[in-house]
Amino acid sequence: MGSPGGSLLDIGVGAAGLSVAMARLWPSLTVVVIDPWEPSLALARENVQSAGLTDRIELREQAAEDVSDTDAFDLAWIPSAFIPETVIFAACETVYRALRPGGWLLFAMASPGTDPVTASLVRLRTVFWGGCLMTYDQIETLLKECGFTDVRTLPAAKPNQSAGQAESRERRSPSAAGDDLGGHGGVEDGNHHRSGSVLHL
Q1: Rounded Cα distance, 91 and 72, in Å
Q2: What is the total count of domains within the chain?
Q3: 20 in a domain, yes or no?
Q4: How far apart are CA 75 and CA 163, in angstroms?
Q5: Which residues constitute the domain of residue 117?
Q6: φ/ψ of residue 154, rounded to 5
Q7: What is the pLDDT of residue 162?
Q8: pLDDT at residue 181 in the model
Q9: How would DSSP label each residue in 156-185?
Q10: Considering the domain boundaries, does residue 49 fall inside one?
Q11: What is the pTM (predicted TM-score) of this model?
Q12: Which strand ranges, in their side-by-side order, compose the sheet holding 7-11?
C-alpha cells in the first residue's frame, strides 16, 4: 500500500474518515470512495477538502454492485453492516474483479458477541442500517464462491489496536503483502492465490 501506485477502494464512504486516515498513513496511496447516498458523499467531500486530499481521493456516487473497475485496486473495504444482503454477493463479485492480482479485501462485520441481549441489539442495529445479517460461516462461503481463497475470520480489535487485514488476490507479483500493508500483518501472498478475510468489529 505504501509503494507508488497503491490504490484503495472504500465502499460506503460515510464521512470519509477511513480514506482520509489511510491517505495520511500512506502518502503515495490513491483512494476511490463510493456511496450511493449523496448526503453522505457531500459530507465526505467536505472532509476530503478540509484534509487537503482532493488530488488523491476520488468520490463517486455509485453502489458497490455497480463497480466496473478491473484490476485497479490493491485493497478494498466492505462494511457489511451497510450493504443489503440482496446485493452483497454481487458487491463481492465486482470487488473481486476490481482488485489487482494479489490484492486484499477487508470485509467488516459487527460482532454479535456471546451475550444474547447484545447479539439482538447488534442484529437490530444492522437491520436499521440496511445491512447484511449473514453469519461468519455464510460470509466465508460467499467470498469463496466469488473466487476468494484462504478466507479467514479475524477477531475484533482491542482498543487502540488495528483490527487486522484480509485477503490476498492472486495475479499480483509476489511482493510481501504484510510490508505493503504497513506491517500490520495479514495473509501472505507468496503463493499467488486469491484470498479473503472477515473482520469482527
Answers
A1: 15
A2: 1
A3: no
A4: 15
A5: 63-200
A6: -105, 145
A7: 40
A8: 39
A9: PPPTTS--------SSS----HHHHTTT--
A10: no
A11: 0.77
A12: 57-61, 30-35, 7-11, 73-79, 99-109, 195-200, 149-154
